[in-house]
Design a protein that fits this description.
With 321 residues, the chain is of the alpha/beta class. The chain is 31% helix and 15% strand. It folds into two domains: 128 residues, Rossmann fold, CATH 3.40.50.2000; 173 residues, Rossmann fold.
Length: 321
């Protein structure tokens, strides 16, 4: 009997990027029958730990991790991070490896000159790294597996409600407090505000200005699994360009996403969703302002703030009919 392949997949961060590796993990598992391990950062282990296509999840910060990985005797390393740290690890493991190309020059042309030679999603770019393994994209979209033991929530999910993910890596990727509160003030359904501890200051300001009893602030109060469960059972998810957006794309729900300094053309829009996503894009420019949305060409706090509130509200009302 031939030896079962052992494959290590590397993606250190972040939530969204790790979620976007799930199609390639699924296809590797089903098409090669290999044993798949995954290496990430401790902060993001929760994102991938329940995935049944993964045998073990390892954390890069642990002092014994390299020793453990060497003992696993991998046949192949698939590097979907492609930075100096992952290169160093590949050299230390000294096994055959395949690396995802970031297409940095094409991305540069898009951001600075508006010339789009990318024309694909980052998931499709991931798959080019395993082309030589004859692994193909099954086009079944994103996977996110919720640990049912981790989703005890004091909220009635049998009712109709909306989830609004207000977070973002940078301020330039977030709608303003004014935009959010003005839209929520016109929504009759319960609205759950989802985010991390760092979003709590904003969520409290939204609630204080609204003074409505159908708005619930869950920022910093839910795990990733709990947030995913709430989104999965909602009528609609509103979100900035965040990891929560990519988790939501694994479920059978409409997604309304907001784009300013980053644009879907960079290849990070909701991927192969069961319902067509609605990407609302700031109209000041068709090209991205920066790679990760940290810088804006138009104003300090981001051109996403120029998105018309009425456009968002009309989209929400249409989807809820």
């Amino acid at each position: 009997m031939p030896k079962k392949l052992k494959i290590l997949v590397i993606r250190f961060s972040s939530i969204g990027d790790i979620v976007l590796t799930t199609p390639i993990i699924r296809c590797l598992k089903l098409q090669t029958k290999a044993e798949i391990d995954f290496l990430t950062k401790t902060n993001y282990k929760e994102v991938i730990i329940s995935n049944p296509n993964i045998n073990e999840v390892y954390c890069s910060e642990h002092s014994k991790t390299l020793e453990v990985l060497r003992s696993k005797d991998y046949d192949i390393v698939i590097d979907l991070q492609n930075n100096f740290r992952s290169l160093k690890l590949r050299l230390q493991l000294a096994v055959k490896s395949y690396t995802y190309s970031k297409n940095s020059f094409k991305r540069y042309l898009l951001i600075y000159f508006g010339v789009n030679l990318l024309n694909d999603h980052v998931v499709d770019r991931y798959f080019t790294s395993v082309k030589k393994l004859n692994v193909y994209n099954d086009k079944k979209g994103i996977d996110f597996y919720i640990n049912s033991n981790m989703v005890k929530i004091d909220f009635n999910t049998d009712q109709d409600y909306i989830c609004w993910c207000i977070g973002g890596t940078y301020e330039q990727k977030k709608l303003s407090i004014t935009q959010i509160k003005n839209i929520i003030s016109k929504i009759k359904l319960p609205v759950l505000i989802i985010g991390g501890e760092s979003d709590k200051k904003v969520s409290l300001q939204i609630l204080d200005s609204l003074k409505k009893d159908n708005v619930f602030d869950l920022c910093g109060e839910t795990t990733i699994d709990q947030s995913a469960y709430l989104m999965k059972n909602s009528k609609l998810v509103l979100t900035n360009d965040t990891g929560m957006m990519h988790i939501a794309s694994a479920f059978d729900i409409p997604i309304v996403s907001f784009w300013g300094c980053t644009k879907p053309s960079l290849g990070f829009a909701p991927y192969l969703t069961s319902k067509k996503p609605h990407n609302i894009i700031a109209s000041l420019s068709k090209r991205p302002c920066s790679k990760h949305g940290r810088y804006c060409r138009f104003q300090r706090d981001g051109c996403i703030k120029f998105i018309d509130e009425n456009v968002i509200l009309n989209t929400v009302e249409r989807l809820l009919k």
